[in-house]
Amino acid sequence: MSAFHAGKIAITEAVQLLSEEPEKQHGIYPQKGLLQPGTDADLTFIDPDKKEVFPRESLQNKSKVTAKTDFRMASLCGRWSGGRL
């Protein structure tokens, strides 16, 4: 998102890089990472104007591995997952 905020890429490219590309790398695209009828729709809503610090302990993945630690990013406003908000 920093590239988008810096005007280096369009919002559509940012969305593709953050949703489609990781799923393609994990071999689960297009069932995940694509918003269309028949696919799994997990959505994350953010407020790009509100920033929060996300410590490593807050990561919700199995590996707990990230290139960044304690970094500032857009604030999470909500999540739609498994048909629930």
Number of domains: 2
**Which structural class fits the helix and strand makeup?**
alpha+beta
Catalogue the unreliable spans: none
Proportion in β-strands: 25-35%
Number of strands: 2
* N-end to C-end Cα span: 23 Å
The number of distinct helices, counting runs of at least 4 residues, comes to 2
Shape: globular
Helix fraction bin: 10-25%
Biggest β-sheet strands, sense, barrel: 2 strands, antiparallel
Radius of gyration: 14 Å
With strands numbered from the N-terminus, the spatial order across the biggest sheet is 1-2
- Could you spell the SSE succession in H and E letters? HHEE
Mean pLDDT: 80
Strand and helix layout:
Layout: H1 2-5, H2 11-25, E1 43-54, E2 71-80
Antiparallel strand pairs: 1-2
Domain Amidohydrolase-related: 7-59
InterPro entries: Amidohydro-rel, Metal-dep_hydrolase_composite
GO molecular function: hydrolase activity, acting on carbon-nitrogen (but not peptide) bonds
Structure summary:
This protein has 85 residues and is of the alpha+beta class. The chain has helices at 2-5, 11-25; strands at 43-54, 71-80.
